């Protein structure tokens, strides 16, 4: 590298010293650059290019203890003190220097450039196996005597690493110089500055102003403290007269405050204070300049005098103030916390009042000490391999780069010549390295404002292959799942790895096998034939090593009969099925959950191999039950809900015999047998109220974190009343007990006395530890905080550790009380090892396992290229592209995301939706391909592709256009069937919304239907401009089913099916509504008719249509709910009957044929003409007349019938839900002989339990031939004496035909 003139500008002398550290002095630097200018370049540009082209990747050494134990490595500095190290004079001085290596490094020190013999100074000791110095002053001595510049060297057989120069200084807090301060006399309205001038401490003190009452001086727009500590008055008022203005200096290291003698301020008042224009008190003049270092805090100040008090405004020439700028101290101070190069420029402050204004310009110049662009890292190479170390830094001015080896300048004569090494500017190239050339290299980047020093070793390693994983592993995988067989290995040179199955054949790679660079074999979809023994063999020039993995492919675990939702009446048994099919070689575990919590089986609940039984169901059993079946490698779950119903049929006499109730609360809770983490709780059970106690629930409350909140601790069987409770440390407990029986829970008992457990370190490891980036240069580490009962002690906090994975750096640690920590200034998407540990005042908890997290992702920088298509079909196309370089993804590769949209249809005049759609392809092969499906036929498409990580998408690829082929059309837009007359059906339709090609016509198939019987299929064809057709009906009752499809050259599209209606109205369909199970029980002149349906209760009407076979006459009457009695039929006649929906005519039952029974023949003896029968009827009539007279007499005397009591009883529920989900509207009494009751056509039922007198007022009843009462009651409007929604309207003419069943 040609240093040019960059070394002649007076580098600070403490940066360059002449010693073995290799950080050269300023004079040596100039001499070295002169020599470099006179010598030839070490390599030409061409040779550099050739070398880079031959370079191989450095070896990543695994952290396996077996490898690390045998690995010989040069030293690495892992811990050191700060460059500028200020210490407290009251403490011992500790200068840190820690290093690792194999063999263990030895340490030495230099002080002020000379060897520091720590053994000759009794106050100085060096820690064992460490270079850390400890300087003790117990036996006397002054810390100031040890101020100076220190540097540590760590050496072993393979090289020497060194720390930064550590400038040790002792903190100072000098006293304020003694001075006599005269009173300050000033005229009202004048400006004033009270100087602070604090003593120069190390580090500088923090200043503030207070009065004699130790209260801060009030500051505002008029009075404020400047950055130098002075107190500024823009104008003085009479109220400012005080004798105790005191400046204070606080020294951070010694935690002391020094106070200056107070100022006395006397203000001379005047009748009128003259107004003045603004004038700057600080800074002075019209302009000033300021230099600030990159990354430091910039503070600019403008304080002005004037009457009235001026206001301050800030501007930046050439642009607005950015978001980094903060205005403080009443706009008098401009602050930028972390300055960067773009913050340089001219800043202007303007002070103005109503008299005038004034400006001041501050020119800000940003300089920069060196900072890393590419820090050199350790390099492990195998013999004959190539590599390089790169050291790139930036700064202002541009830093000078110098290389050292083992602490010596690389170009010095004392460094042995190395033909395999060459220095090209900021890079050291290594070519065909050999054993024995391991060393530690240092890169020193320096300019006028500081320096950087980095160590990076080059270790030459040769090692025969070694297997790092467990030997002869057994891997079990579910059939058809993807599986990975791991084979971690290491060797130098990097071994070649191959896989074999059952010790035969060639290496496995390709097909449904894939071998990763880390040795893992992926089987994309495990099949039964993949079962066997797999051998991985790693080999290099030093030998070979192998390992075996046994793969077993298992059948999946599945629940083949899942539990179903069910309702159970209280006191009955409920049963949930859970039948399982699984691999016979895998043991299974079946567990049940209730409402997502483990189900305690106890004595009542029974679990067998494939079901759960719940006897004597009560309200507490209601909930969602989940069956979970687990094996060691998979699981399956299924859930169902149990609803508990009350038994409405339970009579009062039955329910009053020994009624069960909730148990009484347990009493007399007693705490005994205290232990560190347990205690015995004893109680006396209360009365169980005729239902045995099945369970005791113990709850606790603690008063430290959630005072007053009762929480479940554990539950115990109902036959226990003394239990050992397992407790958590550092909790002040009190307990209560709840008894549970089949009815429910008791009230909680009174709380027990409190019991305090002692504290301990945390037992639990916080769960949910993960690390991910929320920005491209950070990583957020988060976890689930411990529960309050897991704290185990006060002041719970978390110790978080992280480090870059696989580069050997030391752990960084931080302690926080929150549940996350953000690591800033990370590289983009690099892996980190993360660990976590809970800590309280009693000590450290267990350390978590190390997990891998990643820093944030950035936008991918490269697009996929050469996007193209092939094999274009009507609905799909093959997509091909050239993948991106993985390094450009800048994150975890998620997918190649294809954006495609329909640009138009090739059918003229058809408008399309151009909304963009996406499809992802996960592929890492060299020539990826994918299939894009669900395209619209006969369309023009466009597409482009991006690569995506988890957060961002990269730039788009080239745009591709293609046209899909013609396909079959969609269904017609609509298909209407209108029955305009009794002899014809008119059909209408419209062309499809998506023709998917050029329409060439329509095809109509149709056939007759009669219940489940269908006729021969017939067909009609139409031109594309025909959208209507009329079909003549040979018979009115014939029904057809139609199938309509549109046609293109490719073929017929999806069929639109419709069934012809029964009447002349256009049919709408009610999805899912059906009528079934039509049954007819014929008699001589009437028939009982019933059917099932799933229409909503109370909101549907039906038409009952019956046709007389002899003459074809058809009758149709509206009815409500079944069952009904169809009267007025002809004796001995044959009828056809069906029921259909009054609203949806196409929803119909099947047609049922029945025949009424014949009347008795005339030659039979008519019983009505027999004398004995006439006499019997007269006697019965006389008895009935006498009973009626008695009833009227008793009623007039105030008597009541016993049936009046029955009227007040609640009626039984009549709506019962069927197994198929429909509702069956009938009473339990429907099939019994009816006495004094009747069914109306809408299915409503009246129970006539009272006297006819209650209904007979104004009644107009009459009896039919069969004795049924077909009149209508005049019902009382008493809500308590009515049932259902029966109508009180007058009887319609139809009701004259039908009597109530």
Automatic annotation (TrEMBL):
Residues 75-163, 177-264, 278-365, 370-459, 465-552, 556-643 form the Ig-like domain. It is a single-pass type I membrane protein. One of its GO terms (cellular component) is plasma membrane. Residues 1212-1232 have a biased composition (Basic and acidic residues). SUPFAM superfamilies: Fibronectin type III, Immunoglobulin. Residues 744-759 have a biased composition (Polar residues). One of its GO terms (biological process) is brain development. CDD domains: FN3, IgI_hNeurofascin_like. Keywords: Cell adhesion, Cell membrane, Cell projection, Disulfide bond, Glycoprotein, Immunoglobulin domain, Membrane, Repeat, Signal, Transmembrane, Transmembrane helix. It comes from the Eukaryota. One of its GO terms (molecular function) is cell-cell adhesion mediator activity. Gene3D superfamilies: Immunoglobulins. Residues 744-771, 1212-1301 are annotated as: Disordered. Belongs to the immunoglobulin superfamily. L1/neurofascin/NgCAM family. PANTHER family: NEUROFASCIN, PROTEIN SIDEKICK. This is Neural cell adhesion molecule L1.
């Amino acid at each position: 590298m040609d240093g040019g003139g960059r070394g002649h500008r007076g580098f600070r002398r403490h940066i360059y010293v002449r010693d073995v550290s290799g950080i050269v002095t300023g004079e040596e630097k100039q001499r070295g650059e002169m020599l470099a200018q006179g010598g030839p370049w070490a390599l030409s540009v061409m040779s550099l290019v050739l070398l880079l082209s031959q370079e191989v990747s450095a070896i990543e050494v695994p952290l396996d203890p077996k490898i690390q134990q045998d690995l010989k490595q040069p030293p690495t500095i892992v811990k050191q003190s700060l460059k500028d190290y200020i210490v407290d004079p009251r403490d011992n001085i500790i200068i840190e220097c820690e290093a690792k290596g194999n063999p263990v490094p030895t340490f030495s020190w230099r002080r002020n450039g000379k060897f520091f013999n720590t053994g000759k100074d009794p106050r100085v000791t060096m820690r064992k196996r460490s270079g850390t110095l400890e300087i003790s002053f117990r036996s006397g001595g002054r810390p100031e005597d040890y101020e100076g510049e220190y540097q540590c060297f760590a050496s072993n057989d393979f090289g020497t690493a060194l720390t930064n120069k550590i400038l040790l200084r002792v903190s100072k807090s000098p006293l304020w110089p003694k001075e006599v301060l005269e009173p300050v006399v000033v005229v009202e309205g004048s400006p004033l500055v009270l100087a602070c001038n604090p003593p120069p401490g190390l580090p500088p003190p923090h200043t503030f102003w207070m009065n004699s009452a130790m209260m801060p001086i009030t500051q505002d727009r008029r009075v404020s403290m400047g950055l130098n500590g002075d107190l500024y008055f823009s104008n003085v008022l009479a109220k400012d007269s005080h004798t105790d203005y005191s400046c204070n200096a606080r020294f951070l290291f010694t935690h002391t405050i020094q106070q200056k003698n107070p100022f006395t301020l006397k203000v001379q008042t005047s009748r009128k204070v003259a107004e003045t224009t603004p004038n700057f008190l600080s800074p002075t003049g019209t302009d000033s300049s300021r230099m600030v270092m990159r990354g430091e805090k910039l503070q600019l100040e403008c304080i002005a005098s004037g009457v009235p008090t001026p206001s301050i405004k800030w501007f930046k020439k050439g642009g607005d103030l950015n978001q980094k700028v903060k205005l403080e101290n009443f706009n008098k101070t401009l602050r930028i916390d972390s300055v960067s190069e773009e913050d340089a420029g001219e800043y202007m402050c303007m002070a103005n009042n109503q008299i005038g204004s004034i400006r001041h310009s501050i020119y800000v110049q940003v300089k920069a000490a060196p900072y890393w662009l590419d820090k050199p890292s350790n390099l492990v190479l195998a013999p004959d391999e190539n590599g390089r170390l790169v050291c790139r830094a930036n700064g202002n001015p541009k830093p000078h780069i110098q290389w050292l080896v083992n602490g010596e300048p690389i170009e010095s004569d004392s460094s042995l010549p190395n033909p395999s090494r060459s220095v090209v500017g900021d890079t050291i190239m290594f070519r065909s390295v050999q054993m024995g050339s391991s060393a530690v290299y240092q890169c020193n980047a320096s300019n006028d404002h500081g320096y950087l020093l980095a160590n990076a070793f080059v270790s030459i390693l040769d090692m025969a292959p070694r297997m790092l994983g467990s030997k002869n592993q057994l891997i079990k995988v579910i059939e058809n799942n993807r599986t990975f067989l791991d084979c971690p290995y290491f060797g130098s040179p990097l071994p070649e790895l191959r896989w074999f199955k059952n010790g035969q054949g060639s290496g496995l790679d390709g097909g449904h096998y894939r071998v990763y660079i880390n040795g893992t074999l992926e089987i994309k979809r495990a099949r039964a034939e993949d079962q066997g023994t797999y051998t991985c063999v790693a080999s290099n020039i030093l030998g070979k090593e192998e390992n075996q993995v046994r793969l077993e492919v298992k059948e999946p675990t599945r629940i083949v009969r899942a539990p179903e939702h069910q309702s159970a009446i209280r006191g009955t048994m409920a049963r949930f099925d859970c039948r399982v099919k699984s691999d016979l070689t895998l043991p299974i575990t079946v567990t049940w959950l209730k409402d997502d919590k483990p189900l305690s089986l106890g004595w009542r609940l029974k679990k067998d191999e494939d079901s759960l039984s719940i006897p004597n169901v009560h309200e507490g059993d209601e909930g969602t039950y989940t069956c979970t079946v687990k094996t060691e490698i998979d699981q399956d779950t299924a859930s169902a809900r149990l609803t508990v119903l009350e038994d409405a049929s339970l009579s009062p006499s039955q329910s009053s015999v020994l009624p069960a109730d909730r148990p009484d609360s347990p009493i007399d809770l007693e705490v005994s047998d205290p232990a560190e983490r347990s205690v015995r709780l004893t109680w006396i059970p209360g009365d169980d109220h005729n239902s045995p106690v099945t369970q005791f629930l113990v709850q606790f409350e603690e008063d430290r974190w959630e005072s007053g909140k009762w929480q479940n601790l554990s539950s115990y069987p109902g036959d226990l009343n003394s239990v050992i409770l397992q407790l958590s440390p550092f909790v002040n407990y009190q307990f209560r007990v709840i008894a549970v029986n089949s009815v429910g829970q008791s009230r909680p008992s009174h709380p027990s006395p409190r019991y305090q457990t002692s504290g301990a370190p945390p037992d639990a490891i916080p769960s949910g530890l993960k690390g991910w980036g929320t920005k491209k240069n950070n990583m957020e580490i988060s976890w689930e905080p411990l529960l309050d009962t897991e704290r185990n002690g006060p002041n719970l906090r978390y110790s978080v550790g992280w480090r870059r994975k696989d580069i050997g750096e030391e752990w960084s640690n931080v302690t926080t009380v929150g549940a996350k920590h953000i690591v800033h200034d990370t590289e983009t998407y690099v892996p980190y090892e993360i660990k976590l540990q809970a800590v309280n005042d009693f000590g450290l908890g267990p350390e978590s396992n190390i997990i891998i997290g990643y820093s944030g992702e950035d936008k991918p920088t490269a697009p996929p290229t050469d996007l193209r298509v092939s094999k274009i079909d009507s609905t799909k196309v093959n997509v091909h592209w050239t993948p991106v370089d993985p390094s450009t993804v800048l994150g975890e590769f998620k997918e190649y995301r294809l954006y495609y949209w329909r640009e138009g249809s090739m059918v003229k005049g058809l408008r399309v939706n151009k909304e963009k759609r996406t499809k992802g392809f996960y592929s890492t092969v060299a020539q990826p391909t994918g299939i894009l499906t669900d395209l619209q036929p006969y369309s023009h498409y466009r597409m482009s592709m991006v690569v995506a990580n988890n957060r961002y998408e990269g730039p788009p690829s080239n745009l591709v256009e293609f046209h899909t082929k013609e396909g079959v059309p969609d269904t017609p837009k609509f298909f209407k069937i209108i029955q305009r007359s009794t002899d014809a059906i008119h059909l209408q339709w419209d062309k499809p919304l998506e023709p998917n090609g050029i329409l060439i016509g329509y095809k109509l198939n149709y056939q007759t239907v009669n219940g489940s019987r269908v006729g021969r299929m017939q067909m009609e064809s139409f031109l594309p401009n025909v959208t209507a057709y009329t079909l003549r009906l040979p018979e009115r009752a014939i029904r057809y089913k139609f199938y309509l499809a549109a046609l293109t050259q490719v073929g017929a599209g999806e069929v639109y099916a419709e069934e012809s209606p029964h009447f002349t109205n256009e049919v709408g369909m009610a999805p899912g509504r059906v009528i079934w199970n039509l049954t007819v029980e014929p008699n001589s002149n009437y028939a009982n008719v019933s059917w099932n349906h799933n229409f909503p209760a109370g909101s549907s009407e039906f038409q009952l249509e019956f046709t007389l076979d002899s003459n074809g006459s058809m009758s149709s009457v509206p009815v409500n709910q079944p069952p009904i009695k169809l009267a007025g039929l002809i004796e001995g006649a044959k009828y056809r009957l069906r029921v259909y929906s009054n609203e949806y005519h196409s929803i119909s039952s099947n047609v049922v044929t029945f025949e009424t029974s014949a009347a008795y023949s005339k030659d039979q003896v008519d019983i009505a003409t027999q004398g004995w029968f006439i006499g019997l009827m007269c006697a019965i009539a006389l008895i009935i007349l006498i009973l009626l007279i008695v009833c009227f007499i008793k009623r007039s005397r105030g008597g009541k019938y016993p049936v009046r009591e029955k009227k007040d009883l609640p009626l039984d529920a009549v709506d019962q839900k069927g197994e198929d989900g429909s509702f069956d509207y009938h009473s339990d009494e429907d099939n019994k002989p009816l006495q004094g009751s009747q069914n109306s056509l809408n299915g409503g039922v009246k129970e006539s339990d009272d006297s006819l007198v209650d209904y007979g007022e104004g009644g107009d009843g009459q009896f039919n031939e069969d004795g049924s009462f077909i009149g209508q009651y005049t019902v009382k409007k008493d809500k308590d004496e009515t049932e259902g929604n029966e109508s009180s309207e007058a009887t319609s003419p139809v009701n004259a035909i039908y009597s109530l069943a």
